Fold these 3 entries.
Entry 1:
Amino acid sequence: RGKLPQMRPLARLESDAVMAIDAATRRNLELTETLSGERSGSLLACIDRTLTGAGARALAQRLAAPLNRPEAIAARLDQVELFVADEALCARVREVLARTPDLERALSRLSLGRGGPRDLAAVRDGLAETRRLRDALVENRLGPLPALVAKAMEDLGFHGELVERLGRALAAELPVLTRDGGFIAAGYRPELDEFRGLRDESRRHVAALQARYAEETGVPQLKVRHNNVLGYYIEVTPRHMERMGERFIHRQTMASAVRYSTVELGELEAKISRAAERALALELALFDDLVGEVTTRAREIGLAAAALADLDVAAALAVLAVERRHVRPKVDGSLAFRIQGGRHPVVEAALEASQASGFVANDCDLSPGQRLWLVTGPNMAGKSTFLRQNALIAILAQIGAYVPATACEIGVVDRLFSRVGAADDLARGRSTFMVEMVETAAILNLATPRSLVILDEIGRGTATFDGLSIAWAAVEHLHDRNRSRALFATHFHELTALAARLAELSNHAMRVKEWQGEVVFLHEVAAGAADRSYGI
C-alpha cells in the first residue's frame, strides 16, 4: 500500500499502428506458446536469442504487436542490419549484454519498496555496463549508426556518479535481505565502522572471557555460547558443577549441560547488543538513502534499461539471421506479397534438430492479380505448414526481423486472420462447427484489402454439401467483398472451378508422386489443382 511501480509517461498509440491479431489466430499460429500450452515449439522459443531478461520481454512484446508503419519497421531492420553486417560489433555488444543484470526488474523492486542490497548491486552493475556498451558502439562502428541505435546510445546516458557511489557503498558479499545487515562496505561511513568495531571487539572480549573462566575453574571444556532465549551464557557438563564458584549465577540445568551467567558477561552482552543494533539501524538508514537516490533517477535508469533491451533484441535477431540464413524483407505501403524460397522457421529448426531431411522451401505471391490462392492436396502433404509459414513470415517482417526466405517483399498487413484446425468450446455452448463458423464470420466481417487471411478446411465440421456451400460462399466473399490477400486450403476440389469465374483466384496444389504403389509427398507448391486427396 502506498507504493507504485516505476511507470513511464503515457504515449498515444494510433489504433492502426500495430497489426491486429485476434486470440484464435495467436493460438493457431502458436506465436508464444504451442496448442498444448508449452513455450518450447512456439515461434518465440524458436527465434529467441536474447541474453537479458528485459530483452526477452521486449522480443515477446514485439511479437505480440507487429508494427504497421513501414518507416518504423525499416528503422528496426536498419538496427538488425548493422549487427548482421558487422559481426565483430555484434559479438562485442553481446559480450557486454551477457554480463548485464536485469536493470528493469531491480528498479521496479526498489521503487515498490521490495528491493534488497542485491537489487542496488544490479543497478550499479547494469549502469556500469552502459558505458562499456557505448564505447563498443563508438569504437567498432562502420560508418554512421542507424537512427534507433543512435537513440539507444543517447538513452543509455551517463551514470558515473551513481555507479561510483554505489560501488563505494556496497560490500563485496551481499545478503538477500536488508535485515541481515553487513551490506555496507567498510570505510563508507566512519560512524558505522565504529559501531562494527565495538561489536566485533566485544565478541573478542567474549572469547577472552571464555579462556579466563576455563583457566579459573580448571574446566577446559567450558564454553561461552549464545541463543535468543538466554543470550550469552557459560556452559559446562554436569560433572563439573562443583568447580563453578559463587560468582557464576545458575541459569539452567539439562541432562547433558549446566548453564551459568556472570555480571561481567551480562554487561558485555548489553554492550554487544547495543553496538549491533546501532550498526544495523545505521545500515538500514544508509540503504534507504541509496534507494532514494536511485528512485530519484528512475526515469534516466528506465531509459537505460529500455535501451539495453532494445540493443539486445536487435543483436539477437542479427545472430538469428546469420545462424538461420534469413534475409532482410522489404516492407512498404503497397499490396504486394511476394516471398521467394519461404520456410517455416519452427518446422525447419525441428527438422534440423532431429537430423531429418531438409525443409523444402516454397514461393508465395499474393500480389494484385492473384491475391487469393486456392491450395489443394492430400493431408500430410504440407498445406497447413505452407499456410502458416507465410503468416509467420509476415509477422517476423513487421516486428523488424529478418525472415526465413531468399527474398521477401510485403505490403504492410493491417490485420492477420487464421482459421486452422478443429476445436470445440463446450463450456460456452459451442460445438466444433459453431466455433468454426464464429471464427469464419469474424474474418469475413473484419478483413480488409490490406489483411492477410489464412483459411484451412472451411466447412469440414458439417455435412459434405453444406460444407462445400459454406466454403464456396467464403471464397466468393473474400474475393469480391473483402478483397484480402488470402490462402485458402481445401479438400473440396469442386472449388477449383471458381478460377474460371473469379479473376484474382489462382489454383495451387501440393505436389505428390505415386511410385510403385507408394504415395510420395514432395512438399512443393505448384500451380494447378490436385486431382485426388488419397484419404491419408
Entry 2:
Amino acid sequence: LYGSARHRELVDSPFIYPGRDPEADKQLREGTYVFQLGRALSLRGIVVDPDGQPVPGAKVSVGYRISSDRRTATSSADGTFVVTGCKPGKTIISAEMTGFAVTTMEADISAITELVRLRLQHGRVVSLRVVDAVGQSVTNAHVQLDWYPHLPTPMSTPKPSPVQTEFNAKTDGKGRVVWSNAPDVELAFLVDAPGHMHLNDVTVHTDEQEHIITLPPALVVTGTVRDATSGQLIPRFRIACGWPDSNHPNDPTLAHWSTIDRFRLNFADGAFHHSFEEPLVMHVTNPRYILKFEADGYAPYTSRVIRPDEGEVQLDVQLVAATAITVTVLSPDGRAVAGADVGLISPGARLRLVPGGFSHQNLDSVGALLTTDTAGHFNLPGDKTITRVIVAGADGYAEVMPSELASQLTIRLQPWGRIEGTYLVGGQPAVDRDVQFGYGHGDLNGVSSDFLRFRVKTDTNGRFVFPQVPPGKHKLSGLILRPPPYDKEFSPPPLTDVEIRPGETTTVTLGSGYVVSARWRWADGVTAGTNWSVLASVHTPVPPAF
C-alpha cells in the first residue's frame, strides 16, 4: 500500500509506504496518522498567439503530466490565467490550444514575481509512414508521442523541457499518420501494431519530410512440455517471462522476472504458443527474453536467452519430476508459527530482508517468497537451484541448507538480536549520521538487507540502535553525501563487522579518533575536482602514518 493526500490549493503530502515504515503502519491502524499538506504558490500569467494577441480557452499546466503535483487551469477571455496549488521550486509550464503547437518552458515558481507570458506558435507538419520488415504498409498501427523518458528521476538531473502534450493516432490504409501542429523540436514516439514488435524511442525531427518507421516482426515462441522420464505431455504448466541481468546478459540463472500478469502465462495439454510484441521492460536497448517453465510436482526449467529478432523459436522442454516436502516452522519455545516469511534463496531470487520478515514490495522472482500456513507449514519444492532457506517472522529468524531438511522436516527459529552503538568522528559523537546494517552474505542477486528498513540515524550523543537484526556475522557502514551535482547517498566500505547472537544485544563503537582529509589528483597532477568523495576509516588508537 502507498498513498498521499492532495488539495487543489496546497502541495500534496509526501507519499507514505506503510509496508516500509512501521511507525506509519502503526499510526494508520490506530487512526492517528496525519497527512501534512504543504504551502503552495499561485502562478499568474497570460497566453498569447504568435502576434501577441490573447488566447482564451487555452489549457495551462504546471508540472510534468505524470506528476501528482501537476496543476492545471484554463485561460479566460482576456488570455489570463491563475494556477493554484503549485509546488515551489523548479518545474515546467505548458500551454496548449487547438490550432497551435504546445509551448513548454522551464521556470522556478518560487522566483517568479510578475505575470508569466506563454506565447503559442503555429505548428510544423510531421509525417510518418509505418512499414513492416519487407517494406509493406502497416495499417492501423498505433503512433503515440512519448514524453515519459524525459521526466526527471530522483537520481538524475532533469533533462531539457519535453513536449508536454498528447498525440495518439492510427495509421491509414497506406501506413501514414500526420501531425499538423507539432512543436518545432525533436520528438520521440512509441509505435506498435498487432503481429509486430513494439518500438520505443523513435526519434523524429520536424523537417517537413516523410519519415519511414520499420516495425520488426513479433517474436513467436512455440513448443511442448513433457515429463523427462515418461515423455508424456504435462497437462498443466506455467511460463514466467523474464529478461537478463544487465551485468550478466548471457546468464539465464540471474534473470529478472516480470510481475505483470500478462507476462505470467498458463497453458494446458502440454503445448504452448505465444507471440511477444513488446519488451518486458520499457526503454531498454536490447529487450531479450528468458522463460521459466513450472508445473506442480516438477523442478522448474529455465530457457536460454532469446533475442527479439529470432522470429519463430521452437522449444521442446522436458521437466524432471521433483517431490516437494512439507516443512514445519517452530518458534524458539516449540510452537508452530503461522504467517512467517519463507525465502527460497537461489540465483536471481533478489529477496530483501527487513526487520521481522522479508519485503513484499516489487517481488522480482517467481515463487521465491512463501508464507507458512495456519499450522506453520510450507512446501519446499524440489528445486536444486535453491541454496538456502531463510525463515523470518515476528517470532524469530532461522537459516538452513536444503540438505538439512531431508531428514529433519522442522525449522526452529532463533530470537532476533539487537545492536546498540556509538558513532565517533574525530573523537566526538557523530550527530544525525546514517548507519546502515548489511546482511553478512549480502548478494543483490540472492538475498540482501533492505536499504531503507535497515538504516537508522544517530542521536545527539552519536548513539544508534537496531532493535531487530538477524543472528550471524554481518556488517555496519556509514552513509555519506557526495558533493553536488551528485547529491545522492552511497554506502562506503563497511566500518566494522558485527557478530549477532540470538536474543542478545551487541554493543559496538564506529568511527575513529582522527579525521583524515584528502584530495584526489590524476596521475598528471591535475586536481580531480569536487565530484569525488573520500572516506578513511581508522580503527587503531595511533595516528595514521601519512
Entry 3:
Amino acid sequence: MSKHRITFLPIDRVCVADDDENLLEVAMKYGVHINASCGGNASCGKCRVRIVEGNVYSTDHTKIPENEYNAGIRLACKTSAKDDVVVEIPLDSQIDKAVLKRKRYVPHILSALNVSRLAEGVTIEPVVSKVYIELPEPSIQDNISDADRLLREIKRRYSIDYIAVDFKTLKKLGRILRDSGWRITLTIAYTKTGYNIIDVEPDNTADKNFSILIDIGTTTICGQLIDLANFSAFEIKGFSESRIDDCTVAETSDYNAQISYGDDVISRIMYSQKRGGLKRLSEAVKGTVNKVIKELLEIGKNDMSHVSHVVFAGNTIMTHLFLGIDPKYIMLSPYTPVFSVVPSLYAEQIGIDVNEHACAYIYPCVSSYIGGDIVAGVIGSGISRSDKIVLYIDVGTNGEMVLGNRDWLMCASCSAGPAFEGGGIKFGMRAGNGAIEQVKINPLTFEPMVLTVGRLKPVGICGSGLIDIVAELMIAGLIDRNGKFKRDLKTERLRRGDGAYEYVLCYAQDTQINKDIVVTEADLDNLIRTKAAVFAGCRTLIESAGLAFDDIEMFIIAGGFGHYIDIEKAQTIGLLPELPAEKFMFVGNGSLLGARLMSMSKDCFTESERIAKMMTNIELSDNNKFMEEYVAAMFLPHTDEKAFPGVIARLKIKSRGSGSVN
C-alpha cells in the first residue's frame, strides 16, 4: 500500500495517508480539525476543503455545486489522495494553535484477530483434533475387539501411552467400522488423564473440525468460530504461532438476554432468588449463546455436526447463572462461589445446540468477582508467560485488573457500571455500525467533528466515543472538572433538555434515528463514576503490591471499549494514568483470545487451572484504601493534579484569562 503526504493549510500540518484513507480520516488521526457531524458519510456536507495542489479521487460530485467543485472544493469524507496533495481548510473549521502544538499520542492497537505476537512460546496442539485412519479388517488369526483394534492402531501410529474410547462412541463403533469399510475419522480429545476418542465418523472428514469460542459477558455475549482442520495435534507438531491468525471463520455478538432481569450482576443475583428466577436467568443466557452459535454457523456456512468443542469464559456470577448454579453466596460475606473449576462436559449436558459429542470447556474462576474471562485474558494476552511487570485492565460492566508476570499474579475487581458498553448513557450503544467512535470539538466554535463505525449516519455513542466526547468537552472548556456544563457559553449546541443541560453532538437530520444525539450531565456523571472505579481499582492493586504506576512496564487494555480507544483521551478524563503511550496495548476481547489459545493448545488447557490458583485476589468491596481512591478520582481528571501534569497544563492553557481550571 502506497502512502501520500497531505499538507493541511493554513496550519501547515503535514500528515501521511494510506491509499484507503479519506481526508477526514487523516485529519482525525493527526488532530487536524474539520467540521463534521454525520459520522463521515457526506450527509451533513460540512467537511468542505479546497484542493490546492495534487490529484485526488472524490465521490462527492452531487454534494458540491458545480462552480465550487470546479474551484477545487471537496468533501473531506469522500475524497482520497492519489499522490501528495495540499488541502486548505476553511477558516471556521480551524482549531486554535495551542491545541495543535500538543503532542499527538498514537495508541498501540492490536486487533483481536492478530494474536500471533501474544502466542509466542505457545505450542499449537489443539485440545480436540480429528484424524483419518484405515484399519485392517479382522480375521480368524486377528479377531481382537473392535475397540482394541482401533486403539492398537492409534498407539502404533502416534506413540500415545494412554487413550480410551468414550462410551457413546463405543456404542456405534462396530456399525460405523463395517459400514465404512474400516475407513474412519476419529475425533480425539485431550483430557487431564490422557486422550479420549469422543466420536467416530465414516470416511475422511478430518477437514471438518471446528471450535466455537464464547465470552459470556454481563452485557454482551461474543463468539467466534475457528477452523482447526490444519492444526491436528496428531499430524503436525510445533505449529507456527503466526498461522493461528488465519483460522477465524466467523465472529458475532448479541446482547445477553439476562439484561431484562437487571443491568448488573448483583441485580441478577437478587432476581435468581425469586421463585423460578434462577431457571429463567439460565435459560435466558443459554438462549443468547445458542443464538450466537447459530449465527456463527450461518456466517461461516457450516453445520453444527462439524463442531467438536466449545470453550466458554465468563465472570464468576455469569458462569454460575449459565450453569444454573445458585450464586447467592457470592454477594454474602465472606463472598464465596460454589465452585472455581468446572469438570469437562459435553455441550449437550448444559443445553448448547451443537454436535452431541462436542466437548465443553469452561475457564476456571479465581474468586467471586474474578472469573474465567479474566483468567482467559491473562493467558491470551501472554502475561503468564512474560518477564515484564504487566497490568491487565478489562473494563466492561465490571472493572477487573491483574498485575504481575510469569512468577506472580495479583488481581482485583470493582463494579464499574455499563457506561463503556452503552448502558446508562442516553444514546449509548455497542460499537456497531453507526456508533460514534471518534469526536473532536473545535474550542473556538464548539462545533464537533464526528466519525462513526462504518462511516454511516450516527445511531448512538459507543464506549470509545464517550471517552473522546468527555475529553473534548474538557479541552474545549464546555464542562468543568466536576463534569458540569458551563452555562455561560455562546453556542446553540449547549442547551437545557429534560430539566438538565446537554450538548448536541448531531442534529436529527444528520442521524439515522431522526433524533438529536446528545450528551447529558447524567451521562457525564455515569462516566465519571465508571472511570473513578477503574482508576481507583488499578491504583489500589498496584500499591498493594508495593509498586507505583511508573513501575509498570506494560498496560494491556481489554474489554468493551469498542472499535478504537485513544490513550490520550482516556488519560485526559483520568481513566488511565498519564504515562507514555508506548506502554499501552489494546487487545480487544481478551477473554476470546484466551478461549482461542485454550482451544488450540493443550498446554494452555492444562495451565489454566494453575494460573487461576496462582492469582492472589485483593478484595476491594470493604477496602478503605479503595474507597479513598474512588472519592479522589470523582473529578476530571483527578483531585491529585500531580498525577496528571500534562492534562492539567492543557486545561490551564485553555482557561488562562477566564479563571480557575476548576
